[in-house]
Every structure is written in C-alpha cells, then in structure tokens.
Design goal:
heterodimer; A: about 425 residues; alpha/beta; FAD/NAD(P)-binding domain; D-Amino Acid Oxidase, Chain A, domain 2; 3 domains; 9-stranded mixed beta sheet; 15 helices; about 25% strand; B: about 270 residues; 13 strands; globular
Chain lengths: ~425, ~270
C-alpha cells in the first residue's frame, strides 16, 4: 500500500485550497475526486470573492476562467405582483483589486486543479473514497472503491462536501436532518453579452447580481438569485428541505415560479436554457458543525457545514478553511505529530480568521428564520401595501397616508408581535 | 510476446456538446473531453489479450497536447506505454490524412518491436466515419477484421488469429494471418475499473511525444493540405414533430377508424 503525507478527499474549493499550498511546499499529497475532473460535481450560485481565493492562488483573475466582476448587487423582496428593491453599485468594484466575480465552478475548479497538479500534487479522479482506515483507533488512510484501493497517509483531509461520507465514517457527524440543509437548483440561461448589459444597465464586461426573497422562493425559507455571466445568466432558487417537504413543492416548481414572476421574466426573456444544476447546501449553522479535527484527520468546507447563507458565502469559508488546514498540517508534518492535539491548531487558525467568527455571529439565524416564516410572507405583503399607498397620488395627504399604513400594519401584526420580531431579528442576526 | 498497438482518440463528451444554431458549429468551449468510447473497448480488449496470451500494449493517439490525460487513463488499463502524436501541422487532418499519420507511426513501432495486432474502436463519436481503422489496415496491408465482438483465439506460433465479426443479420467467424487490424465493437467487453495502484502508476507516466519531424511525415499528406474532404456544414437535424393523434379510439372506435380512412383518402396516398 502506497503512503502519502496527506490525502485530500474531494477536489472542490476546500480540498484544492489545502492541496495547492501543501504541494508547493513539497509535501507528498494526493487529491481524490469522485467526478471525472475537479469541478464536474461542484455547484454554487456563482459568486466567487476575490480575497480568500487570492490568498491561496495569487492573482487568479489574470489567468483563471472568471465571467464578470460584480459591480452592482441588488436585493429584491417579491410578492405575487410587486417588488421592493434595494441595491448598491460601485465602479470601484469593477477595477483591480476587484471584490468578487461570477464564475462557473466546473471551469474554475478545473483551473485550480490544474495549478495543484503543476505544483506537484497527484490528482486521482473517478474514484470514490468509501471509508477511513484506522490503526490503534487513529485514522491512518482511506479506502477507495477501486480494486486494491487502500492508501495510507499521515493526515486525511475530509473535503468531500455537504454529504461528507468521511465525517460520518469518522464518527464526527450524524446524518443531517431535513431542516439542516437546503436544496438549490439553477439554470444557466444563454443570452448575448450586449443583451445582458442592456437589461442590467452594465458597461461591457461588468457584472451584477440580484438576490431575491419572499415570493421568489414561493414564500419558503430560502433565497433566489440571478447572476450575470459573460453570455448567460445563472438563475436559481433554494429552500430548506423540510420546508419544501411540508409545502409539497418541488425545487423545479419553485424555479419555474420564479422565472414567471413579472419582475423576473423580462430579464430572462428569449434566453435558452443550456444547463440545469442542483445541489445541497448545509444550513445548520454554527451549532450543527461537526468537530473539525480528530487524530489523523481534519474536516474542511461544506463537509464541516461552513456556510454563511445570509451573505451567500460558502466557497469563501471553504477556501479559507482549506488554507488554515494546510497551515496546521504543515506544522504537524514538521513536528511529526498528527494527533488531535496537534491538529487543533487548525481550529485555532479558523477562530482567528473570519470563518468561525462569522459562523458564530449567525448561530441563531437558522432558528430565527425557522420560527419567523412571516418574514417570507407577511412582511413582503406589508411592504407592498406601504409602497402602493405611499407612492400613489390620489388626493389623500401624505400625513394621512402614513397613518393609513401604520393602521394597516398594526391590523395585520399586533404591536407586541412587531416588537418581538424586531428583538428576535436583533438577537438572531446582530 | 505479442505486440499490440491500440489507436485511441480524444473526443468531446458529446452528451455535453451543443451546436451553435447560428454558425452551425460545435460549441466545444468548456466541454470536457473523454476517450472515444469505442476506443475504450479496444483498450480493454488489448488488456484481455495481454492477460490471456502475454503481450506488450502500446497506446497511440494523434491529438492536442491535452490528450495526455486520456492517454494516462488508457494506460491504467494495463497498457505498457503511450505515444502522443502531436504537431500543429497535423491539425485539420481528415480520415485519409489521419490514417497516413497513424500508419507511419505504427510502421516505426513495427520496425522497432515487431507487430501482431492493431486495435481500433469501431468508429469515433465525433466523426462517425469508421474509416481510420480500415485506412490503417489498407496502408499497412494488414488482415482487415472489422466489427469484431469477440477474439476467439490467437495462435502466436502460427501467427494466426480467429475472431467473430458481427455483421448485419449474421455473425462470421474469421481466421486470418497476423499482423491484423481489428476494429472493436462495444459488445466485445465491459471495460474494467482500473485498480488504484495501476491508476496512480499511469498518472505518473508521461507519454512519449512524437511530432511530424520525428516521423519524417510528408507535409502534403497531412493536416488541411493532405485532407481532400472537409466539413462544409454541421447542423442539428430539425426536431421531428409528432404525428397527428386522432382521439376517441377507446370510446368510439368506428368513428375514429372512419376519420383515419378519411385522412388517408384525402391525402391522395391511395386511389
């Protein structure tokens, strides 16, 4: 049985962020990917932030396949026939050093894997890791589904995504429950570049994003998005699995509902659907994260439940967690100590970074959203009423209109409820 | 030991290829490449012959430098070495030029190591011509055994091979002298899932690279210059519209049948 220093299971943003710096440092590292290339099984909405990836791969935008730098971010709350819109645009996001880009994971991860290969890592594709190997209770390798498929190593990196078999095999993570994951679906819809720029008010090459709530997710707990790629749009929607089950709505119905909305339909009109993708997103938050290390193994990225859905961040956390893991592993290799105690440095580095701080900040968010479904139903409707009353000219004075709105709000939600919602929002999100 | 050469091609994964409706060209951007699926069966057949009789298997691929990945995957099927034929002068070669390039390379392998069998897939999935295999066989005057779904027996002593060919409406058992060219059908075998050590070994192997100068190829016989055929246009066949459905066949079959007869008569198809 061949032995490596480090075996990374999963060739996504987390796994490659571990493997690339290790390979560059001369560590004998293998990445095992189940798809036929890195990225082939990976899906995200499509926004990649520059800073975390630059920390690992340098000035990637100069050579990697990115679509458009995002200069404008919009937030829409939808009801059946209205949209409350907010947004921010800065031309400074369109020049170096950039803030974020739209990308296709399938192409971007392939590029990262190519860099990792050139740095000296072995990239083994079309191979599934089915279990960890143990010796005296410590993890010391992996078992793949191939004949003679065992490999030994000092450290296993579980970067095998939201449904991490490895974290389960290592006894770190129980099976997830339906309220701890969302299912998201998206379509890539082709449109000519000039048409995209016209519809979204962009200069050539610039990108924009829209996050949508309320009716956009058929009023389920979740979000929807429209992102501009070079010559296509990524249009998707996701909701928590338990909500979908309860409402008996399929993710595809939800997506069709979004695409038919009168504020959305004109943006995608005439476009041809060229791809359909779906994926699970961990939504359990900080409290459902598994232990991040054990003797001979660390858990990174989605496998560790690192998603900050409020800020649509997952790949960032994955990449930074990979970078921290690589740093901890390098020191463990130096000391030749692969015990949990030695690998605890990984968690320390994560605590010092934004990753665990952000996860902890929003630890109450899942519970807050779960117990406040009115955020996706009642409040958008109130917003629509207020907008329609205040913006129509009908001989009623503005002062009267204000009172009319206040009376309407109180009629739909008593004042103590409003106060408790506000308090819960403060506690849940601040 | 038998000397086997397997020809393989890197092709776009056609399950992911689309045709640009305006320009009528294949959109290859971002489409992953794979080993031509028929060639996978040829590589597997070579591996099985190697296991039955002992053989040295050489993989031969004409294509871009990125085809290294496909050659490495092929190597994990118990092949012994891989050669990539790559040169910008070879680009645009049609089947005539490709068979010239491949047969020139095989001639060189033949001179160095001897030759018993050349295995090809039945056809590629991007060109669909099934001409390159027979082209090689003709240029090298090999026994020509196409559409093989079974290698029945090989007699290395007498240098003879017996195969089963699947023809339209018949199968034929053919006995022929070696060296022979076989084109392999998908039905011949189920490709293996290579062992992990074999896969890792192949990933660490860099194929040999031969260019046009190495093979002293004639520039007039390859690339666009050496290709008398060219693709004028590629287009997706128009989507077939469904036939007309005449309802009521369950409730009132007589009326439905009458409606069908009426349709036929009014179409003028029968007098």
């Amino acid at each position: 049985m061949e032995k490596f220093d480090v075996i990374v299971v999963g060739g996504g943003p987390a796994g490659l962020a571990v493997a690339y710096p290790l390979a560059k440092a001369g560590v004998k590292v293998a990445v095992i990917e189940r798809g036929n290339f890195s990225g082939s099984k990976n899906v995200m909405g499509g926004v990649l932030y520059r800073q975390p990836t630059e920390e690992v791969f340098g000035e990637f935008w100069k050579e990697a396949p990115v679509e458009r730098p995002v200069i404008e971010q919009n937030y829409w709350v939808l009801t059946k026939d209205a949209a409350l819109k907010g947004g921010f645009r800065s031309q400074r996001f369109g020049i170096e050093p950039y803030n974020c880009f739209t990308v296709f994971r399938a192409r971007f991860d392939k590029w990262m894997a190519e860099k990792t290969l050139q740095a000296g890592a072995l990239i083994i594709t079309e191979t599934v890791v089915e279990d960890v190997l143990r010796k005296d209770g410590r993890i010391c390798g992996v078992r793949t589904g191939r004949p003679e498929g065992d490999l030994a190593c000092d450290v296993v990196v579980a970067a095998d995504g939201v449904n991490s078999l490895l974290a389960k095999d290592a006894g770190l993570k129980p099976d997830w429950k339906a309220n701890e994951a969302a299912v998201a679906v998206k379509e890539i819809i082709s449109l000519p570049a000039e048409e995209i720029e016209k519809r979204f008010g962009l200069n050539p090459g610039e990108g924009a994003t829209i996050e949508l709530y309320g009716d956009a997710t058929s009023c389920l707990m979740g979000t929807a998005f429209i992102y501009t790629n070079r010559d296509s749009l990524s249009v998707g929607v996701g909701a928590v699995c338990s909500d979908l089950l309860e409402a008996n709505i399929s993710p595809n119905d939800m997506l069709e509902h979004l695409k038919a909305h009168p504020a959305v339909a004109p943006l995608i009109a005439g476009g041809e659907v060229r791809e359909y993708l779906a994926h699970l997103i961990p939504e359990g938050g900080f409290d459902k994260m598994p232990p991040l290390y054990t003797d001979g193994m660390v858990v990174v990225g989605d496998a560790a439940g690192m998603v900050n859905s409020l800020h649509r961040e997952g790949s960032n956390l994955a990449t930074t967690s990979g970078k921290c893991a690589a740093e901890a592993i390098l020191r463990a290799l130096e000391w030749k100590d692969f015990s949990a105690k030695s690998l605890a440095r990984y968690e320390q580095l994560l605590r010092d970074s934004y990753v665990l701080r952000d996860m902890e900040k929003y630890r109450r968010a899942p519970r807050f959203f779960e117990t406040h479904p009115e955020l996706f139903t009642l409040y958008p409707e109130i917003g629509q009423y207020a907008g329609e009353v205040f913006l129509s000219v009908d001989g009623v004075s503005k002062k009267q209109k204000q009172w009319q709105i206040i009376r309407h709000v109180l009629g739909r939600r008593p004042i103590w409820k409003l106060a408790s919602d506000a308090w819960a929002a403060w506690r849940g999100l601040y | 030991m038998l000397q086997i050469v397997v020809c393989m091609k890197q092709v776009p994964d056609t399950t992911q290829v689309r045709i640009d409706p305006e320009t009528n060209t294949l959109i290859r951007e971002g489409v992953p490449s794979i080993i031509n699926p028929f060639d996978v069966h040829a590589i597997e057949e070579a591996a099985r012959i190697k296991e039955r009789y002992g053989a040295e298997v050489t993989l031969l691929c004409q294509g871009p430098p990125t085809a290294v990945a496909e050659l490495q995957k092929g190597l994990s099927f118990a092949a012994d070495r891989a050669i990539l034929l790559t040169d910008s002068a070879m680009r645009g070669s049609d089947t005539l030029a490709t068979s010239y390039i491949l047969s020139t390379a095989i001639k060189r392998i033949w001179a160095e190591n001897g030759l018993d069998l050349v295995l090809c897939g039945k056809q590629t999935i991007d060109g669909d011509t099934a001409q390159v295999g027979p082209g090689i066989g003709t240029r090298l005057s090999l026994s020509q055994l196409t559409y093989v779904d079974k290698v029945v027996e090989i007699d290395a002593e007498k240098r003879r091979i017996q195969v089963r060919r699947r023809l339209e409406g018949a199968t034929a058992i053919i006995d022929a002298p070696m060296p022979a060219l076989l084109t392999i059908l998908k039905e011949a075998n189920t490709p293996r899932y290579a062992s992990l050590p074999a896969l890792i070994k192949s990933l660490r192997t860099q194929p040999a690279v031969w260019n046009a100068a190495d093979l002293e190829l004639d520039a007039e016989q390859m690339g666009l210059n050496g290709s008398p055929t060219s693709v004028r246009r590629i287009f997706a066949p128009p989507e077939r519209t469904g036939g007309e459905i005449i309802p009521g066949g369950m409730e009132a079959p007589e009326r439905a049948a009458a409606a069908v007869v009426e349709k036929i008569l009014s179409s003028g198809a029968v007098e």
